[in-house]
Amino acid sequence: MSNDQLPRIFIRTDEQARIPYFAVPPVASGGDTGSYAFEHRAVDAGSLGSHTFDAHVLMLPVGPDPVRFWSRLNGRPVSGLIEPGRFRFLAHGDTLATSWNAPLQGLFLTLPQALFAQALGDSVDTRPIELVSRLTPHEDRLLAHLLHAIQAYAMGQRLGGRLFEQSLLTAVAAHVSMTYGAGRRELLRGPSLPRWKQQRLRQFIQEHLSSDLNLNALAAMMNMSPYHLGRVFRATTGRTLWQFVLECRAKEAHRWIAAHPTLPLSKIAEACGFESYSQFIAVFRKFYGQRPSEFRRSL
Questions:
Q1: CA distance 46 to 63
Q2: Are 47 and 100 within 8 A, CB to CB?
Q3: Which of 40, 45, 105, 213 is positioned for an S-S bond with 63, CB 3.0–4.6 A?
């Protein structure tokens, strides 16, 4: 995908014009059109007039030094230091005007409202999730870890696969809803996954290893929300869903290599559902301690 085709972050001015977040292209960008957009930006000292985003936005400064800022959030003045490693969060619909007095680098992630309903589903009550902007820089190590993982995925290191990406976004949506939700609403605790449901899920995954096993499809098959399924699966098994899927694909590839000694490894990777040959090599080596080619030679 070329840079021109990658998802970008846009803002709306007071005149409702939809324009790119900054005229200067980002250092790097990625994401999934209609789902989320990620940008790594480096900008000089400057300002942005009154604007809103079409989605919730997480901002994580990554530059070397603090930068002083002056903002107006829904007309209310807010000022302070933009500090490296400390988040700022702007909820969809809130209006922001801001300026800063030195060059600034940051990671930006948009989270559309639809992502929360899709991700949390039956694990929260039926009221719409109301999020509250928080411009005062604050630390959140878990959220920073998730954002850097999304950065690695969006920048092309897609070893975890599509299911990994969806799991990350689901985890971010759940954490954001608790951290910035009005009243800091807690998610309901769910039960562990019953044995018969575990078996049903495992059988479905085994039968569809060569297909696109995305989190939404697995959740729909189980009649659960993506967030709830991921949470109870990990609580029950000690592993995430995407780790389990990758393990199943590695085991299937191991069996194929042993059973088909002349079949090209690229064909085996495709048959087992790996998204790329590099993912196949990395996952196989993780679970078996050697590359697929090395295992074949050992036979």
A1: 16
A2: yes
A3: 105
- The radius of gyration computed from the CA coordinates of the chain, to the nearest angstrom, equals 22
Work out the burial of residue 115: count CB atoms within 10 Å of its CB; fewer than 13 is exposed, 13-18 middle, 19 or more buried.
buried
Model confidence, pTM: 0.67
- pLDDT (tens digit, 0 to 9) for every residue of the chain, 299 residues total? 444 456 788 888 877 788 888 888 888 888 876 678 899 999 999 999 888 888 899 999 998 899 999 998 887 889 999 999 999 999 888 889 999 999 999 999 998 877 777 666 644 444 456 788 898 899 999 999 999 988 888 776 555 667 788 888 888 988 888 888 765 444 444 457 888 888 889 899 989 888 888 888 888 888 888 877 887 887 787 777 887 888 899 999 999 999 998 999 999 999 999 888 888 888 888 888 888 999 999 88
Among candidates 15, 133, 118, 139, which has minimal Cα distance to 74?
Answer: 133
Structure tokens at 194: 């019953």
Name beta bridge partners: 17: none
Distance CA 51, CA 57 (A): 13
CA neighbor of 106 nearest in space, from 41, 28, 24: 41
Q: 112: which DSSP letter? A: -
Question: CB count, 10 Å around CB of 163?
Answer: 25
Domains and CATH numbers, the chain: 10-181 (2.60.120.10), 195-242 (1.10.10), 246-298 (1.10.10)
- Partnered with residue 52 across adjacent β-strands are 12
Residue 284, phi then psi, degrees to nearest 5: -60, -45
Give the span between the Cα atoms of 285 and 246, in whole angstroms: 12
Q: How far apart are CA 22 and CA 9, in angstroms?
A: 9
Distance CA 64, CA 104 (A): 9
